[in-house]
């Protein structure tokens, strides 16, 4: 790499070159082909995150541990280059990886399992 820099070539690692190429391989509308990189299980986890479920609830729904959910989320966030959980859900919907959530669904309005139902 040092010899290349001496010749005036950019100093990038092979891993950085791969990331640059992945970013260039985008669909015409600019969205990365994330669905080709996510596994079926990761897509399931992503859909449940977008629906507003917490990690423990996702684990219960899919029959996996909360730690496994966290592992999947870490990989999904990396693949989609998301900043946080909200950004992840927004990207998933925007890129068509999951269906749009219902308009009236707001995660903080969902009652906790142990709490009594709210009057609306």
Give the full name of the CATH homologous superfamily: Winged helix-like DNA-binding domain superfamily/Winged helix DNA-binding domain
Looking at the overall shape, the CATH architecture is Orthogonal Bundle
CATH class: Mainly Alpha
State the CATH topology: Arc Repressor Mutant, subunit A
Question: How would you characterize the overall build of this protein?
Answer:
The protein is built from 7 helices and no strands. By secondary structure, the chain is an all-alpha fold. It has a single domain, classed as Arc Repressor Mutant, subunit A, CATH 1.10.10.10. Helix 4 (40-50) packs across helix 6 and helix 4 crosses helix 7. The longest helix has 15 residues, at 66-80. The protein is elongated.
């Amino acid at each position: 790499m040092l010899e290349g820099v001496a010749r005036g070539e950019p100093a990038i690692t092979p891993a950085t070159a791969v990331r640059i190429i992945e970013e260039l391989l985008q669909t015409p509308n600019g969205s990365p082909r994330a669905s080709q990189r996510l596994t079926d299980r990761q897509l399931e986890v992503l859909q449940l995150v977008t629906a507003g479920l917490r990690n423990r609830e996702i684990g219960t729904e899919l029959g996996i541990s909360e730690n496994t959910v966290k592992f999947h989320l870490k990989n999904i966030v990396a693949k989609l280059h998301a900043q946080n959980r909200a950004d992840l859900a927004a990207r998933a919907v925007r890129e068509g990886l999951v269906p749009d959530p219902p308009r009236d669904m707001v995660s903080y309005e969902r009652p906790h399992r142990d709490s009594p139902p709210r009057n609306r």
